[in-house]
Amino acid sequence: MSQEDRFIENSTAIFYFISFFCGIFFILTIKSSSRWYQILPWVSLICFLDEVGFGERMFGFSTYIMGYHTDGLHDIFGFARNLVKQFLIFQKEQLAKNHYNLLVGFLSILFFGLIGYIGLFIFKNRRKYIQGTQNFIKTHPPYFFVLWGLGLGIVSIFFDELLLKLLDTWEFGSFLEELIEMNAALSFMFAVFAIKSHMKNKVNSAKHKSKIEPISVSSSSSN
């Protein structure tokens, strides 16, 4: 069920495609739409293409870049890791052992230092980011589903790029990763239909307001 082109992955691709198609349809048919809402269908399209390997398995073309198979967005992390690995292999052949160890140590400190700095920066400004996110969701309620889907997507990438690479034989982990990804796709689909509802409510509210205003103006002029 969780292997390539099986039920779960196919379902995930279908949900993303529904999000794209319906999102575009709703935006075109309901005139009032925030630019934030217009982004989601295109993100869904990219996710759909990612699920189908950007057509590699359907049309038979190759997506190897510098010898690394990159048929999905998450493969960017693997590609970067592969570049670092190839760089270190090359340096190991060129440098003396002590110099190589110094290079690895320096790169490790640089990497973890950068991660730590970013984490500390986010932690220091956490209240501002949390408040900003809450305010954004208040004005764009459907994006609650989007943020939830993005969170699930990040967890899915964590599973795929870390846990499953370390535990090659963990079949349940592969199933769980695909299941999490499918739930992310479902979140995007829910978001699209929530956007439709939100946009319709805004349009109806604007129409109702436009009907009330002439009545209030005429009553005030008669007084």
Describe, in plain words, how this protein is organized in 3D.
Keywords: Membrane, Transmembrane, Transmembrane helix. The chain crosses the membrane at residues 12-30, 102-123, 143-159, 179-195. Helices cover 82% and strands 2% of the residues. A hairpin with a 2-residue loop joins strand 1 and strand 2 (68-69). Strands 1-2 form a two-stranded antiparallel sheet. The chain has 223 residues and is mostly helical. It is globular and about 80 Å long. Helix 1 (7-29) runs antiparallel to helix 2 (35-51), helix 1 packs parallel to helix 8 (171-222) and helix 2 packs antiparallel against helix 8. It has one domain (7-195).
Q: What is the mean pLDDT?
A: 77
How does the major sheet shape up?
2 strands, antiparallel
Question: Which bin fits the share of residues in helices?
Answer: over 70%
Question: What oligomeric state do these chains adopt?
Answer: single chain
The total of helices stands at 8
From N to C, what is the helix and strand string?
Answer: HHHEEHHHHH
